[in-house]
Specification:
D-Maltodextrin-Binding Protein, domain 2, five-stranded mixed beta sheet, elongated
Length: 307
């Protein structure tokens, strides 16, 4: 069975939007025309592609199969277009990146700066989410690359590289824990804490330590915002539990200190793309820069631990 590219694109627009009206607005066609195209497409397939629910459209099993096919087709078209442009020496293209908030302070800006120097015609879109949602966006085709802290492997993803970084306590230099080279969670129980929200991978790493305590800690804040955790630590109101990403400036200016936390697994930072996808040149170039930068940071972190 062969499908026209336009039909697949319109189907995918409806899938992403979750509604015919919103998809039609994005495609600059009327909702009635788009609905007729969808009905004709479903007739060709021989099965409904969406369930019409009060909350919106939801893919049927047949729709799920077609969605995976549509993602492959459209990403292959993008790769072909970028490869043809590269043959002409244009060095253009677009990269869709999704990452966690902490990496937007120094890690990602450094990468974007290096790409701008080498490939100034490449454009970017950068989405911010938790690590779990980041890799989901790569799987569903709405992003090219995810950079995040993922604990479980997924056959739908290809892990280009992974590196470990210490999870630690962050506090002001005047804090009683600040002079210690490393701390155990039991040391932290004497002080007010800022905990990451349950949906963050940071919280997953801390859960065994929290469960092992006889008495509950004094938690003054739970949040999914890395920036808010950092601000509370800067105010001296509580200690937070993070890795060194996102606090680079504060560490350099000695406004905060980072003390490695004993008895907890390190944070595993990974670079992910969709499995079995042939990457466009611009995406490949950005992935190579990302992997090299991440490995260099991991080597520096390891050397510091061994001193």
């Amino acid at each position: 069975m062969k499908f026209q590219s336009r039909a697949l694109r319109h189907f995918d627009a409806i899938r992403r939007a979750g509604s015919i009206r919103q998809a039609a607005r994005q495609l600059h066609i009327s909702p009635s025309a788009l609905n007729r195209q969808l009905l004709a497409f479903e007739s060709l397939i021989g099965s409904p592609l969406f369930e019409r629910l009060p909350t919106g459209l939801q893919l049927t099993p047949a729709g799920e199969v077609l969605a995976r096919h549509a993602i492959h087709v459209m990403q292959d078209e993008e790769r072909m277009s970028q490869e043809l442009q590269a043959l002409d020496g244009l060095q253009s293209g677009h990269v869709g990146l999704v990452t966690v908030e902490a990496l937007t302070h120094a890690f990602v800006p450094t990468l974007l700066g290096r790409m701008a120097e080498r490939h100034p015609r490449v454009t970017f879109s950068v989405g911010i989410s938790g690590s779990k949602r980041a890799v989901e966006r790569v799987i569903d085709g709405s992003a090219d690359i995810a950079i995040g802290f993922v604990h479980q492997r997924n056959p739908e993803l290809r892990q280009l590289a992974v590196a470990s970084f210490d999870l630690g306590v962050v506090a002001r230099p005047s804090h009683p824990l600040a002079s210690m080279k490393s701390v155990r969670f039991s040391h932290c129980m004497r002080f007010p804490m800022v905990l990451p929200a349950a949906e963050l991978t940071l919280r997953e790493a801390l859960e065994p330590l929290l469960a092992a305590q006889v008495e509950p800690p004094e938690v003054i804040l739970e949040t999914g915002s890395f920036e808010l955790m950092k601000r509370i630590a800067l105010q001296g109101r509580g200690i937070a539990f993070v890795n060194r990403f996102g606090i680079e400036d504060e560490l350099a200016k000695r406004r905060l200190v980072h003390i490695p936390l004993k008895g907890v697994a390190p944070s595993l930072l990974g670079v992910y793309v969709r499995a079995r996808r042939s990457l466009p040149p611009a995406v490949t170039a950005f992935c190579e820069l990302t992997v090299a930068h991440m490995q260099a940071l991991a080597a520096t972190s390891l050397a510091a631990r061994q001193q």
